[in-house]
Amino acid sequence: MNFEKDKYLHVKNVLSPEMCKILAQYALLERNTNSRPEEKDGQVPGSHAVYKDNCMQSLLFHLKPVMEHYTKKRLFPTYSYYRIYKSGDVLKIHTDRPACQYSTTITLGYSYINKPTDGYKWSLYAINDNKKKYLDVDIGDAIIYKGMELEHGRDRFDVGENSWQIAVFLHYVDADGPYKDFKYDLKRVE
Fold first, then answer.
1. Segment 131-147, tens digit of pLDDT
2. 0.90 exceeded by the pTM?
3. Residue 63 maps to a domain
4. Which of 11, 58, 95, 126 counts the most CB atoms within 10 A of its CB?
C-alpha cells in the first residue's frame, strides 16, 4: 500500500485492547451521563458525538509520533472527535475540512445485536480511483488518511436495536504546510 497514491493506510494494533476497552467504557459512560447528540444538520444526526473531549485530546497528543511516522510529515495536532454510532446510522460520503489534512479513525469498541452474518464488521469505506473500497477495522486498528482528499463514509449500520460502535477521529495538519494555522483548531472554519 502506498500512502501518497492510495491516500490511506490500515495500521494494525495502534492501541492495545485494554486501552480501547477503557476508552470505550469511558465514552459509553459519558453518553449515559452527559448525552450530546449531533444536531440535525450534523454528519450523523442523533449520534452521541463529542468535539475536543479531554480524554480523547490526550490520545491526539499520544499518537502524534505514530501519525508523523506514517505520514512522513511533521504535524500539528488540531482536534479530536469521537462518536458512538447506533443502529440505522449512516455516515454519508464526504471529505473533511482543512483542519483534517491528516487524520486517523480508530475503532474503540462495538456491540452488535442481531448482526446480519457471522464475522460482520461495520466497515468504513474509501473512494479511490472511482472504486469503493471497504476497510474492516478491528478494535485498536487505525485507518490513517488524507482527510481533505479521500472521500470516505459508512453504509447503513444494519444491526439490531441497542447496538453501538465507537470510533475516535484524530486530526492533524502539516506543520510546514498551507494549513498550519489550523493548529489546535484555533482557525475553525465549518
1. 999 999 999 999 999 99
2. yes
3. yes
4. 126
